[in-house]
Design goal:
Strand order of the largest sheet: 7-6-5-8-9-10
Shape: globular
CATH architecture of the largest domain: 3-Layer(aba) Sandwich
CATH superfamily of the largest domain: Glycogen Phosphorylase B
Distance between the termini: 21 Å
CATH class of the largest domain: Alpha Beta
Number of helices: 12
Helix content: 40-55%
Number of strands: 10
Number of domains: 2
Largest sheet: 6 strands, parallel
Radius of gyration: 22 Å
């Protein structure tokens, strides 16, 4: 800070980051840009609805409104509707998109010949294994699909919440999935990709909370990086990642019967190959993290003249 003068400041959207970023921008007389990857009040007020909580949220909203109005621009890597409550007028809001990482794409490009799976149809899910992630709904869906496809297996790639373990194992037995479900536990990133690569499709059936509706889930980006067709609830953020249904199958939220039918339909290799080709073509351009990082850089360079 003492030795060089920046041309631009980029900061997060939480109050401490914004306060420091805006203050530094004023002192150095340079434009300030905010980067949004999570809602400003992630989880902070979900369980508090009393008078004090309402007043606190209102005050914090006003503070963020004034700080954001001081910014030259805002990069949203979630759906920009998250900013509606701040009633912004001055800053330019840039709708960005998450994309497959360069690590995942490099991994996919250097894969050996696919291993034989003994005719199994493997459905994969990446992420923390908790009821808040829609696991109970997914188990019901998979149990129904197995009535049509006995050779289906479910691979859950991620850590199982210890507080959920007892209920999870009870549900596996209840739905007769204990012999058809694999839980890998936490894995390093490339090992996670290797386990995901062996799956035929990826799924996303998180419940319709405010966060999941606007999120652009990284797990869907990883499915795309490996060319895996995805079946997901039709939330705005997920729809953006799947090109409105061109790169995967979007199901009206809560329609478990249609979700089951689409999982059955994707057992057809011809259907899967259609999506695989669309995905392959897409991630060479706009559906890549490099593309969107380039968009951010272009805006920053233009702001400095």
């Amino acid at each position: 800070m003492a030795s060089s003068r920046p041309d631009v400041v980029v900061c997060g959207i939480d109050e401490p980051s914004l306060i420091l970023g805006v203050l530094f921008g004023i002192l150095r007389k340079v434009p300030v840009f905010a980067l949004v990857e999570d809602p400003p009040f992630t989880g902070r007020f979900e369980r508090f609805t009393g008078f004090v909580a309402k007043v606190e949220k209102r005050l914090r909203t006003l503070l963020l409104h004034h700080l954001l109005e001081s910014c030259a621009g805002i990069f949203c890597f979630i759906e920009k509707d998250v900013l509606k409550e701040f009633a912004l007028h001055k800053p330019q809001v840039y709708q960005m998109m998450n994309g497959p990482s360069s690590i995942a794409r490099d991994f996919a490009e250097n894969l050996p010949e696919p291993m034989k799976t003994n005719g199994e149809y493997i459905v994969g899910l990446v992420g923390a294994l908790t009821p808040e992630q829609g696991l109970d709904t997914l188990l019901r869906i998979i149990a129904e699909v197995r009535r049509h496809i006995a050779h289906l297996r479910l691979r859950l790639i991620g850590p199982l919440d210890p507080g959920y373990k007892e209920d999870f194992e009870a549900n596996l037995k209840r739905f007769k999935l204990d012999l058809a479900t694999e839980v890998t536990g936490w894995l390093p990133y490339t090992k996670m990709l290797a386990h995901l690569q062996e799956c035929n499709v990826g799924v996303y059936c998180n419940p319709p909370t405010d966060w999941f509706r606007i999120a652009q889930p990284l797990k869907v980006c990883e499915y795309l990086a490996l060319g895996k067709p995805t079946i997901a609830w039709d939330y705005p953020g997920v729809s953006r990642l799947l090109g409105g249904g061109r790169l995967g199958i979007l199901v009206p939220p809560g329609n478990k019967t249609l979700f089951v039918n689409e999982l059955v339909r994707l057992t057809d290799p011809t259907v899967r190959r259609f999506f695989e080709k669309e995905i392959h073509d897409a991630i060479q351009g706009q559906w890549s993290s490099d593309y969107w990082y380039g968009q951010v850089l272009d805006v920053l360079l233009k702001s400095t003249g």
